[in-house]
Write a structure and sequence with these properties.
8-stranded mixed beta sheet; 2 domains; Rossmann fold
Length: 347
């Protein structure tokens, strides 16, 4: 299958995977197998109150030179943090393009673990919206943009749907749109190693909570019947922590796909408009099925562009001609946001 060409007006060739990162798994694992040589951490920490005595930690990076053109809130995916290689590399590309960046640690993640009890979810508006409102204040008259990697894009989509106008533009890379379909995908036999890796990180993150975990949760995580699938973890931990009656209820309410389809204006209850939004997804993504993105590509909501590539894996997009600290997906994100800014956004 031939890849869909990049969005109109961008000076970027179609994606071609580069040697030796050939195939969906090597594309997905590239940063793990061969971590990029990133500069020393220089982000300025900022604790952002989200209610009930809890805060989330953002690491704030200025543009490489000059005054910022925009402020970008950058979100990691499942099991990630502000320290992950792919997220930091994306942030560096945005800084090089003159944008200030907030690398947000979601509840319980990375260096922000001590600031809030519990863990995050695919729909965590009560955490995310206060951060975005604070970012809007910090941005002043500058555009406020969102970039989400994997589950981080899902969270930003849910936030944008919950509060129209909270973002001026949004890019989501390899983001789950249908959580039930995603859980079925990660449970496929070929993904057994991926699922074990994710579960180890999620269990460790949960048990490391300095505020403690309940006896019921500890038994669920450490007992003989401890979760062996992401779905089982969500049933035992994520769904009850975020007030859902079941994992099915959580997956249904936290999946943005139904609301994105409704945002096309069809049906009795059309959704409010999205900010200009780009969805990037590889058809060979081994973690997140492309079906939701394909459904939206056939008839996208107003303001949304969907780019599908034949190759690229899960948040891989390591292509021919990449710079040492930037991949094709990073450059696509930067160019798409630059096009948005050039159109007079926020003026």
């Amino acid at each position: 299958m031939n890849p869909v060409l990049p969005a109109r007006g961008l000076d970027l060739a179609p994606f071609r995977q580069r040697w030796p990162w050939i195939g969906p798994d090597l594309q997905t694992l590239r940063d793990t197998l061969s971590p990029p040589r990133l500069p020393a951490e220089q982000g300025e920490p900022l604790a952002i109150a989200v209610g009930e005595g809890a805060s989330l930690l953002a690491l704030c990076d200025p543009p490489r030179s000059g005054e910022p053109r925009a402020l970008v809130v950058l979100l990691h995916g499942l099991g990630g943090s502000s320290e992950r290689e792919g997220l930091r590399r994306m942030g560096l590309s945005l800084q090089d393009a003159g944008m200030a960046v907030w690398r947000l640690n979601l509840r319980g993640a990375g260096p922000g673990r001590s600031l809030a009890p519990g863990t995050y979810a695919a729909r965590c508006d009560s955490d995310l919206l206060p951060v975005l409102r604070r970012a809007r204040q910090q941005a002043g008259g500058l555009p406020l943009l969102g970039v989400g990697i994997s589950l981080g894009g899902t969270m930003l989509l849910n936030g944008a749907l919950a509060e129209p106008g909270v973002l001026d533009g949004l890019v989501c890379t390899s983001s789950p749109l249908d959580l039930a379909a995603c859980s079925r995908q990660i449970e496929r036999p070929r993904n057994r190693i991926y699922q074990r890796w994710l579960l180890r990180r999620l269990r460790a993150q949960t048990l490391a909570d300095p505020f403690g975990v309940s006896a019921v949760e500890r038994r669920a995580l450490q007992g003989p019947d401890r979760p062996r699938t992401i779905r089982a973890f969500d049933a035992a931990i994520t769904a009850p922590r975020w007030g859902y009656g079941s994992v099915e209820h959580y997956y249904r309410e936290a999946s943005p796909l139904p609301r994105l389809l409704a945002a096309r204006g069809a049906g009795d209850h059309p959704q409010p408009p999205l900010p200009p939004t780009l969805l990037l997804h590889a058809l060979d993504d081994p973690w997140v099925p492309a079906g939701g993105a394909q459904a939206l590509a056939a008839s996208p909501p107003p303001g949304m562009e969907v780019l599908l590539t034949a190759r690229g894996g899960h948040n891989g997009f390591h292509g021919v001609g990449d710079a040492p600290l930037s991949c094709w997906g990073d450059q696509l994100t930067v160019q798409w946001l630059e096009r948005l800014l050039a159109g007079g956004l926020g003026r």
